[in-house]
């Protein structure tokens, strides 16, 4: 099974999703990410979805659940690069991504996480 790479940048973990997400890959990412948060003692997680054109309800819930798990593990989560069509779809599906902060791009997301963990 393919895996999505998770990069360590200081106290942050960076996840750049560059493939079409399917349910099994989303669950593997959730497991991998929570394991890495614990192993690296990460304080922040940045998830870049700029290449995703479509996010269904399962993927939206997975992102929200992953952020909740990160919070329990003492890490903040920021979602960056959301396309307008994805934002519209999430709103139409009624998904609020509770606990997930957003930023326009990776640079702004990193700045936001650094302020939160300072």
UniProtKB/TrEMBL annotation:
Residue ranges of the TM segments: none
InterPro entries, alphabetically? Answer: Bact_StressResp_Reg, STAS_dom, STAS_dom_sf
What domain of life is recorded for the organism? Bacteria
Limits of the STAS domain: 2-113
- Source organism: Pseudoduganella ginsengisoli
Q: What is the phylogenetic placement of the source species in the record?
A: Bacteria, Pseudomonadati, Pseudomonadota, Betaproteobacteria, Burkholderiales
Name-wise, this protein is Anti-anti-sigma factor
